[in-house]
Amino acid sequence: MILITGGAFQGKLEAAEQIYKIQNPGKQPVVAEGERAETGELHKADIICHFHLWLKRMLQEGKDPYPMAETLLKGNPDVILVMNQLGCGIVPMDRFDREYRELTGRMGCVLARQAEEVYLVNCGIAKRLKQEPGRS
Question: Cα(117)–Cα(115) distance, rounded to whole angstroms?
Answer without folding.
Answer: 5
